Amino acid sequence: MQDDYLRQAQENQRFLVSLEKQFPNDFFDWKTTVIFYIALHWMKAFLFVNYNGLTVESHEEIRSFYKDNQRKRRDIMPQHIWAKYNSLNTSCNNARYKGLPINYESWKITRQEDYNLSLQRLEALKIYFQSRRVNIQ
Q1: Please, which residues have CB within 8 angstroms of residue 78's CB and are 6 or more apart in sequence?
Q2: 20-30 in b/e burial notation, b at 16+ Cβ within 10 A?
Q3: Alpha-carbon dihedral 32, 37, 38, 44, rounded to 10 degrees
Q4: Are 58 and 43 in contact (CB under 8 A)?
Q5: pLDDT grade for 100, boundaries at 50, 70 and 90
Q6: Which of 1-15, 43-57, 68-82, 110-124 is predicted with the least confidence, judged by mean pLDDT?
Q7: The predicted structure's pLDDT at residue 50
């Protein structure tokens, strides 16, 4: 199962690289969305490896597991790592559901800033997950 999650994350990474090569100055909303899905599959692999084969289907299930375990005072990950993952979800939702404002250039700049922050957050997650036995390539 871990391999399936990681394989899907790798496919999403290849897609992101392709978008970056072909459209370096466009489609930041879609690039941000892809970044979240890379992180989502890494998170699924992390939970599977570190929590007795736990499988989850959605971000909502991940959020519930995290919150339930925080209440029981069993940390599944440091708060700052969770915040990076959760912010990727927020950026993804913003990219998909915050419509175009009157000023397209302003919207595009905001989406590019979200994209750049998302890349940084993804790298921090990668380092953390690798340190917790997730074999990210």
Answers
A1: 128
A2: eeeeeeebbbb
A3: 150
A4: no
A5: low
A6: 68-82
A7: 92
**Dist CA 94 CA 77 (whole Å):** 25
Number of other CB atoms surrounding residue 117 within 10 Å: 16
Alpha carbon distance 121, 74 (integer Å): 23
Gap between the Cα atoms of 22 and 63, Å rounded: 34
CB burial string 119-134: b at 16+ within 10 A, e below = eebbeebbebbeeeeb
Rounded CA-CA distance 137/130 in Å is 9
CA distances for 64 relative to 2, 25, 37, 94, angstroms? 20, 36, 18, 21
Spatial distance between the Cα atoms of 32 and 119, rounded to a whole number of angstroms: 8
Residues with Cβ within 8 Å of 29's Cβ and at least 6 positions away in sequence, in order, are 95, 96, 111
